Structure formats: C-alpha cells, structure tokens
Amino acid sequence: MQPQIILLKEGTDTSQGKPQLVSNINACQSIVDAVRTTLGPRGMDKLIVDSKGKATISNDGATIMKLLDIVHPAAKTLVDIAKSQDAEVGDGTTSVVLLAGEFLKQLKPFVEEGVHPRIIIKAVRKALNLCVAQINELAFKIEKHDTEKHRALLEKCAATALNSKLIHQQKEFFSKMVVDSVTTLDVLLPLNMIGIKKVTGGALEDSMLVEGVAFKKTFAYAGFEMQPKSYDNVKIALLNIELELKAERDNAEVRVDNVAEYQKVVDAEWQILYDKLAKIHQSGAQVVLSKLPIGDVATQYFADRDMFCAGRVPEEDLKRTLKACGGAVMTTVQDISDKVLGTCAHFEERQIGSERFNLFQGCPNAKTCTIILRGGAEQFLEETERSLHDAIMIVRRTIRNDSVVAGGGAIEMELSKMLRNYSRTIAGKEQLLIGAMAKALEIIPRQLCDNAGFDATNILNKLRQKHAQGMWDWSSRYSICLGWFILISIPFPIVPIAPTVPGCQWYGVDIMKEHIADNFEAFVWEPSVIKINALTAACEATCMILSVDETIKSPKSGAGEAPQPPMGRGMGRPF
Question: What local confidence, expressed as pLDDT, does residue 72 receive?
C-alpha cells in the first residue's frame, strides 16, 4: 500500500476544477441581486443595520457593498471594483457591479460546457478593447472656451448623477451648487477643499454654499458672548496650544513648608498662562483658533481685548483654514508674529438652524468652499452628503476629461450592437463569446426598465430596432414608397435619397414617458470616463474570477478543539 501524503494542515478546505469556478460565479450573482434594484432614477433604497445598531439608508452601490460585510473570497472582488469606481470616478458603482455579474452570468454556460477559461478571458479582453475604442470614437468633445456652454454642460452632468439619488426632486438646485463649489477651486481641484457640514432641521432648499471655510462653533466657556462676532480684514492665529490651567497629575507631589511657598507655585502657573495670552495679543491677531482647549480665563482675557477665540477646533477644519487663509499652526507662542498669522477678508459667527457657525470668507491663499446641508432626519442628511459627493466627483472628472456620452442605457445599446455585428465577422468560439458579451451589455437598459416597472422586453426591442437602423429612418418608409410611385411617370431617372436621422446611436430609455428617446437631446449626459472605467473594472473582475480554478481555505486557529461554552454568571445562568 502507498503511504498517505499529507501536504496541508488537517481541516484545510480545498475545492477545485469546474464546480469551483461555477460556485464562484454563483456567489457573485447573489451579490449582484443585492444591489440590482438600486440602479437608475426609479431605483429602490436599501436599509442596512450594522452590528452596533446604526441604520444606513442608501442606494449608492459602493456604500451598500461596504456595509454588506461580505466574506466570500471571490465575491469580495465585486466589492473592490465598486470601491475603485467610487474612488476613481465617484458614480457608476452599481453599474460596474451589475456589468461584472452579467458578464459572468452570460459566460457561465460556456464554462459548464467545457470551454477553457483562457479562451473566454481572451474574448473578454478583445471585447473590452473594441468597446473602449468605440466610446472614444462616439464621445462628444466639450468646448471649454465658451464658459456659459461649458457651465451648462457641467450642470447637466451633475443633474444626471443626482437623477438616481434620494434628492432627485431638487437636482436643479443642487447641480448648480455642486458646479459653483467645484469651479471655486484651483486648477488641481482638490476634493478636501470642499467641506460638507450637516445641520438637522429646515428644508433641503435651505442648504447654502459658503465661499470660504465654515465650521460649527466649538465648546465655549463663560465670557464667550462678550467677544465680537464679526470682523473685516481679520488676522488669524492658528495654534496647537492648551490655553488653560492644567490640573496636576494624580501622582505629582509638591512639598511646601508654608502658605507663601504654595502661593508662589500658584502665581507661577497663572503667570505662565498670562504670558502666553499677552504674546498672542501683541502679535496683532483678532481671531484665535486652537486644536486644544481654550479655558475660561483665556476666553475672558480675549473678550476684554475685543478678540475672538475658539478651542477644540477639529483638525480637518483647522487644516482647511490653514490652506485657505495662510499662516502656520504654531505649537509655541515664543515665535508668534505677523508672518505666521493667516488673513481673510471677512469673518463672522452666524446662526444656522439650531447651530452657530464660524464663517471665513474672502480667503486669499487657496480657493475653498463649504456646503452647509439642511434637512430632517440624520440618515437623510448622510445620504444627501453621499449623493453630493458623487456629483462633485462627476463634475471634477468632466472638467479634467473633456468628453461626454448619453446615459440611460444608450451607450450600452450602441456597444452591444457593435459587438454583435463584429461577432458575425469572425469564426470560432470567439464569435459566441463576444455575442454573449453583447447580450450582457443590455443589462443596464433592461434593469432601468425593470426598476421603473416598465415592460423591459418591449422597450429593448424598440431600442435594438432604433440602434440597428443606424443613420436610416425606416419609420418614413411610406413617404419613400410614395416618392417612388410619383417618379415612375417621370421619363428621366432621379435617385431619391432616404432621409437620415443623425444621433440614432444615442437612443436610450425614457423613464418619464415609458418609451425610448434621444438621451443626448434630453441632456442625460455622463462623462465618457465613467463608462470606460466601469467596463474596464467589470472586465478585469470577470477575468480574475474566471482565472481562479482552486480555492484553499486554511483552518481557523483552534478549529480542531471542542467549542467553549459561553460565559455565564455562575450556576449555568446566561447573561
């Protein structure tokens, strides 16, 4: 008998071959089903409750994928592509997951029939290259020199991104705000220079854009109300210093012989604090911001000298103020002077809803802005913030990449037609595989119809017919035939020309009329980089999952031991 060879630790789970590949595809399908219904303007929202009981309402694909806490190793690939799409472009996170899932679904029968995964992967890559080339050819280039047209286009792209969000009713209001916020930034368009603050209460239309830095009033001691609340051409001191009397440590020990000695210790502490405050005052600063606490003594000191102070300022807000107003964050008062102070044209403290905000406007160094959101529930405000983040990312990408395509499933239908036509010109297995990829691309318009409650088959048939006719309008067949009938009696030959309809490639789903429409004319525009990024990520994920033929799971530590009973309170009573 042959001796048994043991390579892996006892309890290691190994699965390989075709069943393993099919199992991975099935796992990805179940993930896709979780986010399928969130696509498009009529998409549904998901309510996700985490282990701590915090509820999140969202229809953003990346947010849902992050919160699902997926453990299946192959299905995690879909989470990664949703995250990468969110980080790179901002929108299209649900689309990228749907596309990857549909590619796998359409290619699954070929895997089951024994087609080698490498042949499938080669066909997927070929289809991707064809699609990217076609998008670049079809994309409409933006003319940046015409400022008004360029701004209108940016607003259309932002409105398209907000179409599928919870705040789609206010998309016109927010699309203007998003474009204003991005256009105030400098050439590099840094995302961290747009702050978003949430204030519960009021209506969504009460939201406002502050061209400058704004943050909530921090905790303040007595004497704060005596400080001025508005300045013009203000000098700002940014500190990382604690301006209050420190309590003695628990293990500190100071031995004194009499009361006079103790009084000297107390006086020295006060003198150190007063020296710090005097140096800040002498520097000429009118507004003092510190990351660390500013005590009641310092607050009263500044109030007596018509100075404004705020302690415990969040680090993120302090950094934005530093970038916008200039100066430096000082950790000591010894070197504080006019050179290290920031400046801004106007500072004021304003009541917004139930909160007070410190507003810095007319900042000279960097262009920055803050969006202050108003609304009812906390979850609603959080979803609004996520929606605006997507729209801001889209506008940034549109400014950097100056080409757009029509949304609403139009570009996917055109790519599907192109792949289907190409597949008929080649022989072999690739013909069937590229045909399957063409069918998979139709998932976007199909799902848009399903989520809106339309008859998807009927609308897809209309879209296929419209895209297939290319530049010929066969709907005017009757007039052409009538023209031929009249021309029969004419002795000299005349060649009639069929009327052409430019833009058939932009026909997509019209959610409002339950029909098809030219989405380019309807201003449903998206940056072409979204589609290229989504297709690339989806194809890469498909190739990665198809290339895995074996999964080896190591046993958890202590897997062979008997499970320990849960701890109780004695006598076997549970908590």
Answer: 84
Report the SS3 class of residue 298. helix
CA atoms of 230 and 433, how far apart (whole Å): 68
Q: What are the CA-CA distances from residue 151 to residues 146, 307, 479 (Å)? A: 9, 41, 41
Return the SS3 of 425: coil
Owner of token pair 């701890």:
567
Other beta carbons within 10 angstroms of residue 376's beta carbon come to: 12
DSSP code, position 499:
P
CB 557 within 8 A of CB 94: no
The Cα–Cα gap between 160 and 406 comes to 10
**Pairing mode of beta strands 194-200, 369-375:** parallel
CA distances from 476 to 482, 497, 517 (A): 10, 12, 17
CA neighbours closer than 13 Å in the CB half-sphere of residue 54: 7
- Write phi, then psi, for 203 (nearest 5 degrees): -100, 165
Residue 261 tokens read as 């000695």
161 Cβ contact partners less than 8 Å away, ≥ 6 residues apart = 90, 91, 390, 391, 394, 526
Tell me the pLDDT tens digit for each residue of 277-309.
Answer: 999 999 889 999 999 888 888 888 888 888 898
Q: What percent of the chain stands above pLDDT 70?
A: 86
As a whole number of angstroms, the distance between CA 88 and CA 394 comes to 10
Distance of CA 258 to the CA centre of its chain: 66
Helix, strand, coil percent content, the chain, rounded in steps of 5: 50, 15, 35
Indicate the SS3 state at residue 388.
helix
The answer to whether 295 touches 277, Cβ cutoff 8 Å, is no
212 within 8 A of 360, measured Cβ to Cβ:
yes
- Residue 300, both tokens: 């009263």
**Token reading at 568:** 């109780």
Q: Where are the beta strands (DSSP E) in 161-313?
A: 194-200, 208-210, 212-216, 230-239, 287-290, 308-310
Q: Is 355 exposed, middle or buried (0-12, 13-18, 19+ CB in 10 A)?
A: middle
H/E element holding 471?
Answer: none
Is the CB of residue 378 less than 8 Å from the CB of residue 390? Answer: no
Q: What DSSP string runs through 252-274?
A: -----SSHHHHHHHHHHHHHHHH
pLDDT at 494: 36
Q: How many residues does the chain have?
A: 575
The two beta strands, 287-290 and 230-239, are: parallel
Question: Is residue 483 scored above 70 in pLDDT?
Answer: no
The H or E element containing residue 450 is helix 443-452
pLDDT over 70 at 9, yes or no: no
For the entire predicted model, the pTM comes to 0.77
